[in-house]
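Format is chain and fold; as here:
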Amino acid sequence: MLLEKTKLLGLPKPLIFNQFYQTRYMHLSFDSVTYTKLVQRSTKSSCLLHGKLAHAHIIKSAFKPCLFLLNNLLNMYSKAGEMDVAHRLFDKMPKPNLVSYNSLISGYNQMGAFDKAMMVFSEARKACLKLDKFTYAGALNVCTQTGDLRQGKLIHGLIVVSGLSEIGFLSNSLIDMYCKCECVDQARFLFENSKEIDEISWNTLIAGYVRMNKNEEMLKLLTSMHRNGLNLNTYTMGSVLKACCTNMDVGIMCGKMLHGCIMKLGFDIDIVVGTALLDMYAKMGELHSAIKIFTSMPNRNIVMYNAMISGFIETGSISKECANEACRLFFEVQRQGLKPSKFTFSSMLKACIAVGDFVYGKQIHAQICKYNLQSDEFIGSALIELYSLMGSTEDGLKCFRSTPTRDIVLWTSMIAGYIQNGKFESALSLFYELMACGGRPDEFTISNILSACADLAIARLGEQVHGHVVKSGFGNFRIVQNSQICMYAKCGDIDSANLTFQETENPDVVSWSVMICSCAQHGCARDALNLFGLMKEHEIKPNQITFVGVLSACSYGGLVEEGLKYFESMKDYGVETSIEHYCCVVDLFGRAGRLAEAENFILTSGFKNNPIMWRALLSACKVYKDAVTGNRAAMKVIELEPQESASYVLLHSIYADAAVEPLAASVRELMLQRGVKKEPGLSWI
């Protein structure tokens, strides 16, 4: 035989195929053992081409393969992901046995075709074959991956009936299935009543508790595992460290204790444990400790670099220094010859977005194209956000169209990008396209569309979206309710806005703030202030937006003294005053005709070089026909914004109303000299 000859000659195994290529042209045929060894070797080396050549030779030489050889061919095609070929081969098998069915189930599981895997499992049962642990394990994996608890319980029943429930291999699969289907108590019951439990059983249950955020039970189980004399391995430590990130109070203390245990066990230089430690410290805000672990690791892979880059990016508000460190690490990844993953590029795009470095963002986009990752929807969403912030929705749309698999996050990112840049009609058009292609919008998509309806004041379309919200069951999402309140208020329907607010269970600070601002904009000053009082009674802490609404209400209602009291009380709530609040106070004085106080307030506010403040005073001067104060305010605004036409127009109106034609004419002449043009008004109505 060929294999025996190569063995006698001392030829290495790869040369078996060279001998095969030479002899196959001599029209020689081989026996089942030779073909089987060739197929097994190609499966082990993941070289499908060699296996296909052997299969072709079997067909060409009219050799009748035995069942063992056919199963090896089936296994080869299944492991290579060639499931269409594998299933055709299976269908032509005269009498497939249980090994044949198991290979096919395993192949479909590997490819994620879980419905087909379950179909093969059903066919195996119909064939009246005695199913073994591998068959049941394959079926349980389908239930685990799809979260089908009902089907999993049925298979559990079949395992018990078949008498295989005591096998540790199946017990572990069942524990994993129950954990991933969020039935960790059932998994614990099975764990405690299983006769064969090993380290995999313990680790699987620990991972289940971590997934369900049951940290106390997880720590107790870890302690029991240690007391029972089982070795804590890297998988165990990785799972437990992940749990420390979910509890800010005890997480860092528990994490440091585990770090000490890891040092004693000698796992501190393990890449998996090191990455988990780094990630834990970074997420708990201990960035310096994370950096120490990173620098102490002798061998770093791309996963560890990703964790460190992510640590710099996810530090709350990203500083320029953190973004620069992330960039430095990215350069190091390239120098080390490591291949960046989609997570690497996603983090780098986040850094560029956070610090507004759009030039570097474009360079990252070029790198993404170089590594052929532009079609990933995760990266596509980040690219759309980048170009939307740049104001280039056209480039964002190109990224959107070039992504073949578009999930709802990608659609929402593009719709939000249009709204962010004031292209509300394009956002609505894209929403229609989403609905037409059978997509299902989520609560964030609906919130963005309601915002577009609000900005366009399209009440009818907003009502239609509201109807879709009720039908699709998104009515109880807070983000949708808040957008709905805003939409109705901006469309002039304050009663519907109030009704939505009343229907909101446990309104948050955004709900209260939106309703207060809505009442203020509609001139319902007292209603807005009453809502603010109710908000305090419900112990909801107001934010900056809340006080903008309250101060605006006082301004529209002429409640100067009350408004000043609210302005002074902001520090009692720990809310920092901003330019918006100071503008509201200037408007408060201006609407009441107290122009001198308004001017003095601007000069002492610390924002005297902000044109918005002076423009608010200038508008009040026009109402009260105060040409003297108006002239000072206008000169200041013109000095700060010489190309802004609104200031010239307001000053011209003040002079014209005061019948000072020469000065009015001089304002027009100044506009001509400076090339300032007033854009004509445009109304939707």
About this structure: Residues 1-13 have pLDDT under 50 and may be disordered.
